[in-house]
Hints:
- By secondary structure, this protein is of the alpha/beta class.
- It has one domain: Nucleotidyltransferase, domain 5.
- The protein has 7 helices and 5 strands, in the order ββαβαββααααα.
- The chain has helices at about 40-50, 60-85, 115-120, 120-145, 150, 160-165, 180-190, and strands at about 1-5, 15-25, 55-60, 95, 110.
- It has a 5-stranded mixed beta sheet.
- The termini are far apart.
Amino acid sequence: MVGVDEVGRGCLAGPLLVVAARPLGKLPEGLDDSKVLSRARREKLFELLSGCCEFGEGWVTPTQINRLGLAGAMRLGVRRAMRSLEVDKTELVIMDGRVNYAPKIYTNVQCIIDGDALVPSVSAASVYAKVKRDNYMRTLGERHSRYGFKTNVGYGTIEHLKALGKYGYLKTVHRRYFGPVRLLEQTKLC
């Protein structure tokens, strides 16, 4: 069974990362939705998961998100993650959420709301994706320190919103059509 989850869907900046996880053996205790775990716990689980799971990553850049919209970006990320993991078209795939973003060739896909908390393979995908994307955003924060990516990892915190107002958005980093970024762009055009 393959679990699929994403991280970064609601961010103002940075990529979307969809991960497909296939357990190879017993998964570590304490897996859960990555959002409810502490950073230290996620990182420990990430280390443990590398020895008992295979992962496929589906990165979608902010430029692609801007072009495709969020639903299109999700479909692209799922396709890339499943291709990267070499998921067989009849293999059972459990996706977190309500919507099946998998390509139609995959014939055994189930969508489960709160799957990242209920299905261990989806939890594994959730934890892996969160650690990978957060680390990417912290590295990006070294180049763009004004936006606070080291702490907000691209989400719309007060600090991030203030930086957007003061410095504007970064063309290849921010999602231009997401609420606050879009409003900022519209006010700059007037």
